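Q: Entry one of two.
A:
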Amino acid sequence: MTTTATQDRPGPESRPDRPEQGRSSGAALAVLPHVLRGALAWTDAHRADFALPGDVLEPHTQVNATLKPLGELAQLGSTIRRTTAPGTPEHELAGALVAYAWDQVAAGELLLELLRAEPFAAYPYEIYAAFAGYGLRHEGFEALARPLTATRAWAHTEQHANRQLGLVNSERRVGVVTHTDAGAVLSRTWLGGLSEPWMFEGPSGYALTHTVFHLTDWGRMPDRVPRKIDGYLRTWLPAWADGCLESGQWDLTGELLAVAASLPGPAPEPLLDAVWPVLADVQHPTGCVPETGPPAQDTTAPGPYPFIDCYHSTLVTAFAAALSLRSLRSPGQTDGSAPGRERRTA
């Protein structure tokens, strides 16, 4: 199996222990509550780093450094909110983070301005869908989006299959007829083709995880995972996770854990028990998790990593922890949402 660490692989003296086949049952549950609380606390303490700049609507603004982090805060925060028990600190904090993100986009008004400026772009719609799936709507945005998403150009935007699956899921969340059939798109993905497992590497790993996230609406609907893909993932996730741990790919490790917790049926407890304690050891006392490379050795440093190098992996860790807790405590539980209408449009 190929891995794609972007930094030097940590040596034995700096790398956390590798997963052990004999790790005791319950090892994941022993660390998950602390991991979830820590990651959410760090995210809350860094709200200001997610704030949009005043020139966010200008053409020179870097979307990946501004709107992308905020959209991820909304998406993963809303999933954590739905997955955690009402009245718990994690539930309330996740809700507060989503409310903060909604305020940053002026309750949808800023997304409407983006859609007007870039009617050919999918990302304003996808960010909006993260809020719409949570129940936060903007009538003006949807009024403009409705004719745009009915165009031939929208239906024929050239994208990788997993990205197209994400657009289908966004349409489901907004509540419109999807522009194509999700099953047909799934069959064209790396995962849907049940690719040879030894061909797994960084880009295909992220494509795989996002295929599952879009298919299951970010873990909310595990039953959407077909049986053959469920079996394939249960067989190969342990080997892929081990390779990611060996190469210090903490962000991708977190995404694979979220995938494992999004499968239908019983939780893959041996995998969760083996990997979660390792990722918990990587988490800094402040709650953040680096994307890649050796963990910071100074555990007293208030900011061990630049924001851009740890915000996503920290959010993913919180997201995966919330899903894993649900999977281990309440097998088969979903939020009861009905799937969106699906048909191929003419």
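Q: Entry two of two.
A:
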Amino acid sequence: MSTSTSTSATAKTQGNTPGRSYLGWRIVDIVVASVLGVAAGLIFLAWNVGYLGPKALLEPLLPGIQGLLDGPWLFAGVLGGLIIRKAGAAIYVELLAAVVSALIGNQWGGFLTLEAGLVQGLGAELVFLLFFYRRWSLPVAILAGAGAALAGGINNLVLWYAGSGPAFTTIYLISTVISGAVIAGALSWVLARGIAATGALDRFGSGREARVRV
């Protein structure tokens, strides 16, 4: 009896229920992930313009440190993964956000925006996969944000900073990983918990976990 109770409690804590697969998406998963993706895409659009001022200030100070500004473009996949808790959620939400940004228009072009979204989402997705979609703690969220940043940073170095020297490359990668870990990782984890606490996610493991904590 105690074993059964313990198993049930563990399933709730990890946002799972017996027999439920992390590969099977429900309609509600698709709807909420889509809403998250569109909302994140609008934030991307605002940051496409908003980052220009801070970038102009940081670049002359230390070339490469502008990677600290990358976090707001990386959070969608991490947040989607933390809330939906299904395989592919991080890629789907990050890519959809990139689609919104590309369709409305930005300074990087449509295809490269979509490619960046796919790469960044994959970086976060691989971290969640590493934990078999069963761990959704703050350290895992931070690692997912760092993973998205590392993948996106390497992609940016290849596409936008080709030929950069070792100093720039090192500073940029360290900066973007820090930004990804803090903004895309830690802040997304806090945001996911905050949304769950409102009761809006009661049909998700993330929402049920919030109720267990209460």
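A: Comment on entry two: The chain is about 75% helix and 0% strand. The mean pLDDT is 89.
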